[in-house]
Amino acid sequence: MRTAFLVLALCAGLAAQTPTPVYGYKVVQQYPHDRGAFTQGLLYLDGVLYEGTGLQGRSSIRKVELTTGKVLQQRNIEPQYFGEGLASFGDQLFELTWQHGVMFVYDRATFKPLKTFTYQGEGWGLTTDGTSLVMSDGTSAIRFLDPKTGREIRRIRVTDNGSDVADLNELEFIKGEIWANVWQTNRIARINPRTGKVTAWLNLNGILSVMESAGTDVLNGIAYDAKTDRIWVTGKLWPKIFEIKVDAKK
After folding, report:
1. So where are the chain's domains?
2. 173 in Cβ contact with 130 (< 8 Å)
């Protein structure tokens, strides 16, 4: 009886440590991207990209034509702020700042500032699940915020087989999952928004060629169009935006 119990316990332990699936990618299309854009937030809406860029003195929000990379509309942020994640909710844009604890709210059509919210800690990535704003802060935590007040509703801790996944950066909500860039890696975590568990990884190694990567920074930027089921990724100071499809497990 004891032997059977030990076998069951061992099997349970092995099951708990089953490696999380890792998927590859296929590039569907490539589009030009401003090499001066330190991409912090990216989203696709009504046929155009909206992009938030960072660095003090260079931060902005932009409306960008996907096929040409042309900036159609831009608002520069006051130079003391380091812009971070960007999300759209209703007819408004929401933008985080890195270390100032301030979230700016803009009219999406005009980029006119409407109000600000405050939060504790750093601001990194931002998206929406259709009900809440979903925010990362560079740790393993993801916060869910009320878009009307900016107040925190709840939070989850992101884990992979029981271990914290830190450095969560730009976010996108795709088919019921939170997708998160992991800073300084070429990996995207796919996260269950209820439990915080990583359900799968997307490995984007090699998407930017060695020649193209000269002078660039890390992978950061995920956009999704639910109407056409298209996904785009890019990075800070990257020369291209890539439309991708998830490929077979590696």
Report:
1. 21-249
2. yes
pLDDT higher than 90, residue 3: no
Q: How many CB atoms lie within 10 A of CB 19?
A: 8
For residues 172-205, one letter each, b for 16 or more C-beta atoms within 10 angstroms of the residue's C-beta and e for the rest, the string is bbbeebbbbbbbebbbbbbbeeeebbbebbbbbe
Q: How far apart are CA 170 and CA 223, in angstroms?
A: 10
pLDDT classification of 17: cutoffs 50, 70, 90:
confident
Q: Environment class of residue 169 by beta-carbon count within 10 Å: exposed (0-12), middle (13-18) or buried (19+)?
A: buried
Per residue in 142-193, pLDDT (tens digit) is 999 999 999 999 999 999 999 999 999 999 999 999 999 999 999 999 999 9
List all residues 6 or more positions away from 156 whose beta carbon is below 8 Å from its beta carbon.
141, 142, 144, 191, 193, 194, 195, 196
Q: What is the pTM of this model?
A: 0.91
Rounded CA separation 148/190 (Å): 27
pLDDT digits over 183-220, tens only? 999 999 999 999 999 999 999 999 999 889 899 999 99
Which superfamily, per CATH, for 21-249?
YVTN repeat-like/Quinoprotein amine dehydrogenase (2.130.10.10)
Phi and psi torsions of 203, nearest 5°: -100, 115
